[in-house]
């Protein structure tokens, strides 16, 4: 928490002016008092107020520059009368005052125009820009008055302070890939689906995929929740991607891909999953040569061989993959397992290497007599590999050969375990049971409401508060499980509730298959011992989470191998950042961040979404639109996509609920 | 647009607006309900026929218990809401917005074409904005000429209505917003295409930023006399307002808030038969010709009343009536109705816009029926409808709408119809006889003959993934097909047993009206009277016949639009000559004016016995159309006997397809100077190779006895081996070209 001179941030009001700096009070918010490295911030100004860290601040220029940023960023908007002209007038009048030509009438006009912008602008950007400006005009009135009364320039008018700005939105901030969500939703609202897709692809190449199977953390930061229900952000992404596919238009890249540089620089990427594809995409758009090494004969990583067809149709995923692989700068080698020796060779040959492999080792359930080699014990990753390779690519044989009419128990509680049980149903298993240590609420939180309910509808039996104590076999195959039941006992002191084993709760289940899906770990054979690569405490590859370089020079890591088993969108976000860093690193050997990336990290730390904020100016009580799903009998014996997606009308109706919560933030350094 | 999400019965809501108890259904916006209740909320960017644009923010209202101002155009009304549309605070903010709109808007209304009908002017007055209190430096932005329209960015208020029309309605997708804050502007990203449909975008401009290039600086809005009428060209019978001064049409406008025109009617208004006087000797010759003639041949540009005169003359004097396109449509619809039990197909354009999947077959829809194309586009934009387009020729102009193109062989329409029926009726409860015919289909053979693969049909079936909301649009390729009747029956099954909203787009003009009113014949006998067609004696509104007749904008009467609406035509320009009614009277019929026949139109075909002068002609405040009347539903006898598709002879060699460009329909649009364009035979490079032609070759060929002499042009936007042959320029011969639209022709090179 920063000590500061003055703050109106959010509901905070701090005024330490006149006090010696050691007596300054602290802000309750993680404001960026240090910009980057040694560079201190002088002020931070944004949608929710202004914070001043340095006495030598020029409030008039700060306000003017903030208005100027609005002008610049309204290039992306300018779509309502109040915002378009109001912003322009704000800037013109403020600049007039700052250069010593203003009048008190201008102050009155500024207040009037601010009021109109705040109540009638189309987006939050227009509604919020006046707020910190009015704060400055109120609390730094004397600086404004001096300029007006003496008709002199304000102290820093000549521009010896830098102003670094960024536009964000609560959803964009929460999205690990920082997708410009309001822009792609606006493309849907405008029915210009190419604009929608172009907005998504700026930071997210996997538009089909993340329009289907993203767990959408963004929706937990949707301001619409403060009013009624969050926007169905994730599903709206599908429309742009489907438009491109349906109308067979040429690939819509966010920028024209630059020609291959042919300057001898090249980057190796290990793994063609979401992380590898994303990094390859953004490097290749820059014209940087990328070679991908993929162990499997098929591309796409866990999304291809892990996520079932009924959730993520492979023809759609292949569009996302082709988008990347068809770029001139990208080539891929399949069936190429990279081990430690090979990695050393690659790293020698390439200017930088990005590790983008997944977590593909199924962890054990830790029960007595757990023998992974026993027939009937089947790791979730291996099981899903078999299911997906067969259904999507015709490789191998159908898993129904094993599972038809059998009893299957899965232990888990996350997405992978849901995929296991729902695939088992589709492969014709007689009885499918999910054992989960915690309760229904938690499984929904870990996955989605839809996943859980659809699984229940399809006939999966969930046994909560349970775990396996012992596994029995007859020497050839598994026969049954001994299961413990627990009670969730609330902590009388208000702490986390404890699981307490029920005395008489044990029971047996006769089984044919046990499929543990309790988590996955990394296959670390790839890392040469002599590199001594630093690992996290949960045994993933350590980076600083900003530039994604590992402890080994020039070796980067992104996605599950860096974070541990996590989401697609997390892999995309990390890989895009890594690609950006790599694109500079291969030329100057330094790991640097762009101002935009520094600001992105500041804002994530500050947190843009404020769940306590009262939303005004929107009609409450407009429910979130749900897309049509296949009925249970229409889906449980096949691999048809369950979610039929929005109709246009539903999508537009949902897009109209979006409040376009764009915000500008700016740091003075 | 009211919500019809998944056809769930809309939830009724009750609310209070300005103290008035109002009701509606959930999904309606506050503004929609207010307008239904005659409550005024000011707007600058609202356009009833599109989805809310929400750029002007003028429509903000106060909702009790909700902080802040609520955008009534976009926000849905909720049950129990108490809304106030006006108070001091709202007035002040609206006034401030008007002040902002006036920042830098040139106050030179005297030289602006929009003056007198300008929303900015009106609202500036309404909100008492007297001067420009804010100004900023304005970048210089020159006026752009975009063909039929011109754009002056300095006058543009960025309401985006034009962009919405271009995107949502006409689907030309030419106009976009170029984002740039205060220097935002509208751009035309398809300038080269020179779309005439841009006129529809200009029609909704609230200020003088987008104006018709030809109208610019020619007249003041308030001097023009507006005469309502209906489109004489495209068959949709949409509303038009001829704006006239001194017996001259200056422009054509429409109720653009609610409806949209085809480009032919917006620009092709100068087709009147000019300077005609009563020529007694020609008239007498005409009567003599009628006395001797056995057949009357007439084109589609014949009003309902004129058609009825012909029918009555037939009844009185036994003429054969020949109107080939209408006759083909009549036979097709009779066969269609024998399955559905109704005289007309059930489909409506409104239901088309609400479709989740649309199949289009047997028509080059973008050129044949622009109004239907608009509605297809609305379905594409509003519903993200899957649009499967089946045709022998791909049409790049609708690639933004079409999600699957299925190419079939010219001539194989019957097989394609059978494949569609087989694919789409798999789960339908069909009568045994029908099921037996479908079960007996030799799918492999049909697939091979038509060149429509089973995977393509499987993909088509997948397009119908949503459970409801299917439409089928078919057109003129089918009507003159040798197997038209069986095709009609196969397709009618989709309406009857699979719930398709089927639109059988008739040939242009009044073909549908003629087909309902006249008992048409197939063969010419004896000496002929031609009406806008070459006959032994020719009556013509084109000005080159043996006796002049009035054009459709010079006479009163009605047309039967393919929307099943009977719409009035009014006299727009003076006409001094004889009309058909004069001849009819001379031949023994008796009516003072042609419109006395309006009330006599056949009720057994769904017409109503209404006097012409009682026909309404307006849209109400919420956009409901009150123009003429809708035909009544008529039941007909059912006979579902189907035949097996016949084997076809392939079309090899040089095949041409009769097809006019989007803004042309007939010899009358060809007559329009505004729409003047050369008629070439246009083919792909591949066609040129097959036909051994080079770009610019002068060629000659004959279709339906009409000899075409044209220049051949290679059109790189075309693919395949079929060339497009326009017919609009063939004058009195145009209407003779009425056989199946694909023709294998011998092309003779007559020069280069």
Cα-atom Rg of chain B, whole angstroms? Answer: 27 Å
The CATH class of the largest domain in chain A, by name, is Alpha Beta
Distance between the termini of chain A: 19 Å
Secondary structure category of chain A: alpha/beta
What is the H level of CATH, i.e. the homologous superfamily of the largest domain in chain A? FAD/NAD(P)-binding domain
Biggest pleated-sheet summary of chain B? 5 strands, mixed
Tell me the strand percentage band of chain A.
5-15%
CATH topological fold name of the largest domain in chain A? FAD/NAD(P)-binding domain
The domain count of chain A comes to: 4
Helical percentage of chain A: 25-40%
* The CATH homologous superfamily of the largest domain in chain B: Dimethylsulfoxide Reductase, domain 2
- Alpha carbon gap, first and last residue of chain B: 54 Å
Mean pLDDT of chain A: 94
Task: Please render the helix and strand layout as text.
The complex is a heterodimer of chains A (669) and B (752).
Chain A: E1 6-7, E2 14-15, E3 34-36, E4 39-40, E5 43-46, E6 49-52, H1 59-73, H2 81-98, H3 104-120, H4 124-128, H5 130-139, H6 141-150, E7 163-168, H7 170-174, H8 181-189, H9 193-201, H10 207-210, H11 233-246, E8 266-270, H12 274-285, E9 289-293, H13 302-305, H14 314-325, E10 330-333, H15 340-349, E11 352-355, E12 361-362, H16 380-393, H17 400-403, E13 407-411, H18 415-426, E14 431-435, H19 440-446, H20 449-458, E15 461-463, E16 466-473, E17 478-489, E18 498-501, E19 507-510, E20 513-516, E21 520-521, E22 555-557, H21 560-563, H22 568-588, H23 595-606, H24 632-635, H25 648-655, E23 663-668
Parallel strand pairs in A: 8-9, 8-11, 9-10, 11-22, 13-14, 13-20, 14-15
Antiparallel strand pairs in A: 1-2, 1-6, 3-4, 5-6, 5-23, 7-23, 12-21, 16-17, 17-18, 17-19
Chain B: E1 12-17, E2 20-25, H1 30-36, E3 60-63, E4 70-71, E5 82-84, H2 88-101, H3 119-126, E6 144-146, E7 149-151, H4 161-169, E8 175-178, E9 185-188, H5 198-202, E10 210-212, E11 225-230, E12 239-245, E13 248-253, H6 263-267, H7 280-292, E14 295-298, H8 304-317, E15 320-322, H9 324-340, H10 349-353, E16 357-361, H11 365-368, H12 370-383, E17 386-391, E18 404-407, H13 413-424, H14 432-439, H15 443-450, H16 454-463, E19 470-474, H17 484-498, E20 501-504, H18 511-517, E21 528-531, E22 537-540, E23 547-548, E24 557-560, E25 565-569, H19 580-586, E26 617-619, E27 625-627, E28 629-630, E29 655-658, H20 667-671, E30 681-683, H21 685-691, E31 698-703, E32 706-714, E33 722-725, E34 742-744, E35 748-751
Helix pairs in contact in B: 9-17, 9-18, 13-15, 13-17
